[in-house]
Write a structure and sequence with these properties.
The protein is mainly α. The chain contains four helices and no strands.
Length: about 100
């Protein structure tokens, strides 16, 4: 895995977590919480996409550098992963606070 692809995935994961938090106010964890969970989700989403063979890291390694396709794949995988993980953690937190 290329470090540049990983950084792109983490940054887009943080952005995806914050966008999901602003769209899903009920599950928002606050700006810092959305960013942290989004960063984790961005890394996981990017790795999952890479394991499926659609990730930008393999394409970048095969071509010897970053092309627009691998950058878009890294941004998409990181952003979606960050948003999805933020929604999952927010839903779990919301359901736990209702039961207490």
């Amino acid at each position: 895995m290329d470090i540049v692809s990983l950084i792109i995935q983490l940054v887009s994961g943080a952005a995806g977590g914050n966008i999901a938090g602003s769209l899903l106010k009920k599950y928002s964890l606050g700006t810092l919480g959305n960013s942290i969970v989004g960063i984790l989700g961005g890394g996981l989403g990017g790795q999952l996409l890479a394991m499926l063979g659609a990730g930008g890291a393999e394409a970048a390694a095969a071509s010897g550098g970053l092309d627009i396709g691998s950058i878009v794949a890294s941004v998409a995988g990181g952003g979606v992963g960050g948003g999805v993980l933020m929604a999952i953690v927010g839903a779990i937190r919301s359901s736990m606070s209702k039961s207490a």
